Each structure stands twice: as structure tokens, then as C-alpha cells.
């Protein structure tokens, strides 16, 4: 379980009502049962449920079981797509170890309203489920050109379904180790010509192919992360 407080042996910490419901209502746990805790800074702690009633619960950290892992450097930038696809992408990207996720507003994005709080809650739940010790950072949605203008120079790989881009796997082998890369995927309608031209003229950008088929944005996002994590992960 992810907590927003320092973890110290013997210092009881209140869980959120949602976590209380998850422990009692979903996992059918009870007071005294063991739990694993993390807060993104103090590593993983073994502890116990100190008290659990309907939607009120306190947790008792006992001892550290894993040192804190650094926040991953890798980033996913994805054009805003339909809500269910976005939710699914955030959950899978979290399981695949992404460090940060940013919705990107492009000419053909289907929406410019992204509920960041909802996506952050999905990322936290996915981090708890896969036992990561960090929760991906959700950056506010921003227009593609603004992101490019402010870019820090990290290698930016862009999913390109045309057939003349090099395979992502080949590009991933050439990345510096340590996960300092970002993967950008366009909207269901794809990038516009002007957006692709703007991308291609940037030295830090490489367009990359995931094969001859046209993938849904969420498929391309997750498949690309799997390739990059396997070949150039943190
Ligand atoms: N432009 C496409 C069309 O006309 O049908 C649709 C774009 S696709 C649904 C959404 C995004 O997924 C693309 O912008 C691209 O970033 C990524 N994508 C889809 N297929 C891909 C592939 N085979 N290789 C790399 N990226 C792909």
C-alpha cells in the first residue's frame, strides 16, 4: 500500500478510506494481518494492519524489507485518447516501470480535457499491485509544440506507423543505459504532416516503427514501452 507519510517502526499511519475498503472489503483482511507499505522515499516496509473498521484503518510499519529504488527516468508522452484507453495505458505503463506520463495535445487529439487526478489514482493502484516502490509522476497535459520547445534533450522516440521508419528495437539498442528516453505516441487519427515535420527537424527526435500494422494508440504506447524497457530500461 502507498502512504503519503514517513515510514517509521512503530508509528501508526492512517490509510485512506479507499485503502480501508480495499483491505477489508476486497481483500477481506483484518486487524493484525501483515501488509507491505511504501511511500516513494523510504523503501518497502513490512507492517501490520493496526485497526480496520468499515472505511477507517491504521497501519503499523515494523521493518524495512527493501531499500528505496530510484524513480525511473523513462517517460511516456501520449496524445490524449478516449478515457478507457487512457486509463488502460496508465495502468500498463505503470506496470512496465515508467517514470512519468504526460498527455499530449495534438491537432487530432480527441480531447483536451484530461482528468489527471483520476489517472494519478490509477497509477498509484497499479504501483501497489505490481509492488513498485515509486508511483509514476503524471505531468499536466500540454500542446505538442510547447513540449518540444521546452524539451530537455532526452532522446525522444516517436511511434511512426509509416513503413520507412527504423524498427524501435534497433533504435533502443543504441540508447544510453539508464532509461533516459521518452516514447511519444500519436492520437487515433495520427500526427498531422506539419506535426511530423516539426518533430523530425529536432535533433533529439527519432521516428520508430513497431512493424507493418497500424496499432491503436494504446497498443503502440504499451508495446513500445515493453521494447524500450527490455532493451534500454532503467
Ligand atoms: N495514422 C494512423 C491511420 O491513419 O490509421 C492512425 C494512427 S495510430 C492509430 C496512433 C499512433 O500509434 C500513431 O500516431 C503512432 O504514434 C502509433 N503507431 C501505430 N502503429 C504503429 C506502428 N506500426 N509503429 C509505430 N507506431 C505506431
Protein described:
The chain has 234 residues and is of the alpha/beta class. It starts with 12 loop residues before the first strand and ends with a helix. The strands form 2 sheets. Strands 5, 6, 7, 8, 9, 10 and 11 form a 7-stranded parallel sheet that branches. Strands 1-4-3-2 form a 4-stranded antiparallel sheet, with helices on one face. It is 32% helix and 24% strand. The longest helix has 16 residues, at 217-232. S-adenosylmethionine binds at residues 159-161, 185-186, 188, 190-191, 209-211, 213-217, 220. It holds the Pfam family Methyltrans_RNA. Residues 19-60 form the Ribosomal RNA small subunit methyltransferase E PUA-like domain. Belongs to the RNA methyltransferase RsmE family. GO terms for molecular function: rRNA (uridine-N3-)-methyltransferase activity.
Amino acid at each position: 500500500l502507498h502512504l503519503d507519510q514517513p515510514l517509521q517502526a512503530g508509528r501508526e499511519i492512517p490509510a485512506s478510506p479507499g485503502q480501508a475498503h480495499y483491505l477489508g472489503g476486497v481483500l477481506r483482511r483484518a486487524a493484525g494481518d501483515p501488509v507491505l507499505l511504501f511511500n516513494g522515499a523510504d523503501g518497502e516496509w513490512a507492517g501490520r494492519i493496526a485497526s480496520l473498521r468499515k472505511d477507517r484503518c491504521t497501519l503499523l510499519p515494523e521493518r524495512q524489507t527493501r531499500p528505496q529504488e530510484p524513480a525511473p527516468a523513462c517517460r511516456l508522452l501520449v496524445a490524449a485518447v478516449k478515457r478507457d484507453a487512457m486509463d488502460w495505458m496508465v495502468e500498463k505503463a505503470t506496470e512496465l516501470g515508467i517514470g512519468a506520463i504526460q498527455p499530449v495535445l495534438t491537432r487530432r487529439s480527441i480531447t483536451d480535457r484530461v482528468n489527471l487526478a483520476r489517472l494519478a489514482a490509477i497509477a498509484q493502484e497499479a504501483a501497489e499491485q505490481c509492488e513498485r516502490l515509486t508511483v509514476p509522476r503524471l505531468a499536466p497535459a500540454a500542446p505538442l509544440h510547447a513540449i518540444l520547445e521546452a524539451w530537455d534533450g532526452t532522446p525522444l522516440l516517436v511511434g511512426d506507423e509509416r513503413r520507412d521508419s527504423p524498427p524501435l528495437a534497433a533504435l533502443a539498442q543504441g540508447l544510453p543505459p539508464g532509461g533516459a528516453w521518452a516514447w511519444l505516441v500519436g492520437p487515433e487519427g495520427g500526427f498531422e504532416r506539419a506535426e511530423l515535420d516539426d518533430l523530425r527537424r529536432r535533433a533529439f527526435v527519432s521516428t520508430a516503427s513497431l512493424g507493418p500494422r497500424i496499432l491503436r494508440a494504446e497498443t503502440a504506447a504499451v508495446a513500445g514501452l515493453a521494447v524500450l524497457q527490455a532493451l534500454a530500461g532503467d
